[in-house]
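ZP: hey, is the pantoate complex queued? I don't see it on the tracker
AM: it wasn't, my bad. submitting now with these inputs:
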Amino acid sequence: MKGAAAWLKLRTSSRCAGKTIGFAPTMGALHAGHMSLLKRAKRENDLAVASIFVNPTQFNDLRDLKRYPRTLAGDIKKLEAEHTDFLLLPSAGDMYPDGYKYRVNEIAESEVLCGAHRPGHFEGMLTVVMKLLNLVRADRAYFGEKDYQQFHLIKGMAEAFFISTKIIPCPTLRETDGLAMSSRNRLLEMEQRLLAPALYKALRSQARPSEIKKRLAALGFKPDYVEDRWGRRFAAAKLGKVRLIDNVKAMPVP
Ligand code: PAF
């Protein structure tokens, strides 16, 4: 299934009529975390829909966009194995017929955490998610909590613009050593991959955010932030060229 226009035709066809739709938007390079969203979409709805679109407007760094892993053939196999009913595979032209003149702009909570370090990122992300939600018109859309700020902003946008799709958070899936699953993990060099779980370990310590930041820097990370918000503790840090993010529920103080 290719392209947004083709989807719109199909969305109104008898194949979808009266059926509930669960939707997991992705940028591809699918891993077990993505597949858990699609499994849940399939379990809780009549039809499961995925999208794969590496959205250029949410990359504040062109090199990051170029490096972003693209594994379409393997992704399609994984989607088929999970019996995903439809894959929306739009082009940039499909998604931005207006040339990105029209945008969704949140002016408070998109300015903190990743927003403070990635100018334009959340504007591009919210804009594309609004477009995808409008195209698919799902009953439920599923987002991983690894990108908790993203989930929080999408939920806020859906409420602010009366979008009827229910926005559902799903738990972060982790590798056996604790590293949060992410498409970017495959860009880590071997030594960086061995060090990467230290981010999760540091987040779960009882230390203050400023102390954790220092510890991460001493280990060889370049931390952007370690910060408490919304009852959670968030961190973002670079290992070489790869930016890792993670968050955990705030630990009760002993
Ligand atoms: O989390 C992602 O993969 C992307 O930010 C999303 C939600 C698919 C929008 O491009």
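AM: back. The beta strands are 21-26, 47-52, 86-88, 140-144, 166-170, 222-229, 232-239, 242-249.
ZP: great, adding it to the tracker
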